[in-house]
Amino acid sequence: MSRRHWIQAWLLLLPAMVFLIAFTHVPAVTTIWNSFFSTPRGRRPSVFVGLDNYERLVADPVFWKVLGNNLWFALGTIPISILLAIVMALFVNRQFRARGLVRMAYFTPTVLPLIAVANIWLFFYTPGFGLIDQILGWLGFGQTNLLGSPDTALPALMAVTIWKEAGFFMIFYLAALQSIPPSLTEAARIEGAGSWRIFWQITFPLMMPTTLFVSVNAVINSFRMVDHIFILTGGGPDNASSLLLYYIYETSFRYWDTSYGATLTVVMIALLCLIAIGQVFFLDRKVHYK
Amino acid sequence: MTGFDRHLQTFGALILAALWVLPLAYAIWTAIHPAAYEAHFVLNAPLTTDNFVKAWNAAPFARYFLNTFVLVTAILAAQFILCTLAAYAFARYRFPGRGFLFFLVLLQLLVMPDILIVENYRMIHSLGLVDTITAIGLPYAASGFGIFLIRQTFLTIPTELDDAARIEGAGPLTILWRVYVPLARPTYLAYGLVSVSHHWNNFLWPLIVTNSVETRPVTVGLSIFSTIDAGVEWSVINAATLMTSGPLLIGFLLFQRQFVQSFMRAGIK
């Protein structure tokens, strides 16, 4: 029985594991391997260069710039998205006439391609005749160039990201709110607690697992979502709005420096693993998966 | 809650909703009106479908749509088959290496093919598949997320059903197909919606591995169309943008409840 049983199980797993390993685990390992070699150029083959690529990485101001951008991007988008998501969930968790429409309005950006979203927002940001400038013009202000100036390019991308993500996170909070027994809040109300106090002392703590789950997802997304950069800023001006994955793309597929691209990818994998370790320590203690 | 509070909350909800639909509403406004009304909001502005016609004729969108459709369907079919088989093994078999293999599956939730673009390109290149629709789909054919999600559902199915089917003489694949798959239908719907919208929207990887009209999906087609900008009007770009998101958007509006529940189900498990 058992030998046949094992073979059956392995056969069931085989097709999926072949694809998983070929396109996730093998590339992850060869990424690390290739980061110790030089990029083959013309007739010069790839040679072992030890830590050269890493030395270059440490000395590369653009790398530090995009890493910092990624950090600001995460800090600027995640708390606001989560706050908005909670507000949205509280809004649509009650009965009122336009509830279905309102929920739809919040969630719609989630189903749009990020490329399409970027195109739509480009209309707001374009200097001169974008909607923001038109409105400022009516109010008597001068032209802006939000995407073209180093101080505002990244925040402009953040706004787009928040718009796209808040509604997505909302549905998790909605699920969390619906799983809180109404008797808890009713009891608190009978005791004379106000809405504000009920939220902070009952609702918010009970939603903590959701907040942690959403945060981890949001952090991973902040490394993955770069499509809008292609349309809105191209990483500029002067890398002010470039993120790590976008820099990996530029290095590997615009300058075809694949070894350095691999080295940058190693940093990305390391960061994601750190997040995973953090998740094991903070999240899994509070959330019990079934 | 007092009546005043209630009204205030409803008011807030509506304001935020208005703010949230504004970008999309503005895109729709420019797409269905002549260019002269781009920033001129009057109720009697004439409606037009010119922008859509122009966009449709200015780039091979029909082909892009076909490519995306083939891509999304193929990925979904591959994921359903591969993930179902693997999920069944993890849910109902005990075998050596189970824990380790499941760890490898979960690892893909974190280190996704999305970020391994450099090495995956090398792999696709060595297979001679650059610039094919197959190349876009291959890295996503097996999904760690899909295996995990379907396994979670399979675990909730009572084993008595297996035993009953086995007594009737059914083999493992028959049991899987006749008992497990039908009972997991809501999970398949949820996963299907998430997968389709994810791959419809995917951009970076297709951008890297495609370079011809015959293989490009709509997202890449749209980005090329809107960045060439040899004097293409805003309203036409907006029409193209809406067109490429249209099928998903219409699907979402029709099946709103299923969409929201699917994303929720897919996220929480």
UniProtKB/TrEMBL annotation, chain A:
| Pfam families in the cross-refs | BPD_transp_1 (PF00528)
**Broad class of the protein's primary localization:** membrane
Is Transport a UniProt keyword of this protein?
A: yes
Give compartment(s).
Answer: Cell membrane
**SUPFAM superfamilies, per the entry:** MetI-like
| Membrane topology type | Multi-pass membrane protein
Q: Which residues form the ABC transmembrane type-1 domain?
A: 67-277
One of this protein's GO BP terms? Answer: transmembrane transport
Q: Which UniProt keywords apply?
A: Cell membrane, Membrane, Transmembrane, Transmembrane helix, Transport
Tree of life domain: Bacteria
Question: What does UniProt give as the signal peptide span?
Answer: none
Membrane-spanning regions, if any?
Answer: 71-92, 104-124, 156-177, 198-220, 260-283
Q: Name one GO cellular component term.
A: plasma membrane
Q: Which InterPro entries match?
A: MetI-like (IPR000515), MetI-like_sf (IPR035906), UgpAE/MalFG_permease (IPR050809)
Q: What family does this belong to?
A: Belongs to the binding-protein-dependent transport system permease family.
* This protein's name: Carbohydrate ABC transporter membrane protein 1, CUT1 family
Native source species: Thalassovita taeanensis
**Species lineage:** Bacteria, Pseudomonadati, Pseudomonadota, Alphaproteobacteria, Rhodobacterales
UniProtKB/TrEMBL annotation, chain B:
Positions of the ABC transmembrane type-1 domain: 65-255
What is an annotated GO biological process for this record, any one?
A: transmembrane transport
Similarity field:
Belongs to the binding-protein-dependent transport system permease family.
Listed transmembrane segments: 64-88, 100-118, 124-150, 236-255
Q: What InterPro entries does its record include?
A: MetI-like (IPR000515), MetI-like_sf (IPR035906)
Q: Where in the cell is it found?
A: Cell membrane
Which GO CC terms are listed, alphabetically?
Answer: plasma membrane
Q: Does the keyword Protein biosynthesis apply?
A: no
Q: Topologically, how does it sit relative to the membrane?
A: Multi-pass membrane protein
Q: Which organism is it from?
A: Thalassovita taeanensis
Domain of life here? Bacteria
What is this protein's name? Carbohydrate ABC transporter membrane protein 2, CUT1 family (TC 3.A.1.1.-)
- Keywords recorded for this protein, A-Z: Cell membrane, Membrane, Transmembrane, Transmembrane helix, Transport
